[in-house]
Amino acid sequence: MSTTVFNGRQPPQQQRKQLSDQLDRFDHILDGLADGLQAAITDAAREGSRLAVREVIQEVLADPALRAVLAKLAAPIPTRPTVWSRIKATLARLKVGIVHAAAPVVVPVTERVKGAVRAARHAVRTLGFAWQLKKMLAIGAGIGLAVMGVSYISSHGVAAVISGIGGAITAVAVQAGLWFRRSFAVLRIA
């Protein structure tokens, strides 16, 4: 019976385990134990603290003498108002008096300011609408100039056809716009 030698080694099933492999395995086992021990200590400390606090609270609530001492500690102690609190109270009363005295003057001014703000908002909305129309007007002017150039270069017959098509499209667009306007007016009322 002969044994086969693999690259100068014994066959895999007969190889000896290396010391470094054993040390690495032992290191992994110790790391796992350390992690588990840390979690166990944390859980035990949490549970012990919870039980200790529960026992203290139960003892305090069960003992009438301790409850009486806590009640005395919790009772508010009457104090004289400090200089700062008196100054604050005086300033608060002064503020109320000024507000009542100034109300007849302030109310009309605030109404005028609100009216000016409403007018400014309306102007901004109007300018915003005109700004939105800018693109539509630019496209219309560009198409108009292109049609004008083609009509100028072409013969009278082609210019007449282009003018007829342009007039028809314009009439349809105006009618559609009026129809949308009436439809939205009905929807706003309803």
Q: Your description of this structure?
A:
The protein has 190 residues and is mainly α. It has 4 helices and no strands. It has helices at 19-62, 64-74, 83-153, 156-189. The longest helix is centred in the middle third of the chain and has 71 residues, at 83-153. It is flat, with a radius of gyration of 47 Å. The model has no long low-confidence stretch (mean pLDDT 80).
- How far is it from the N-terminal to the C-terminal residue, by CA? 106 Å
Share in β-strands: under 5%
Main β sheet profile? none
Mean pLDDT: 80
Structural class comes to: mainly alpha
* Helical residues, percent: over 70%
What general form does the structure show? Answer: flat
Model regions low in confidence, pLDDT < 50 over at least 5 residues? none
List the total number of helices.
Answer: 4
Number of strands: 0
Computed CA radius of gyration, to the nearest angstrom: 47 Å
Properties at a glance:
190 residues, single chain, 4 helices, mainly alpha
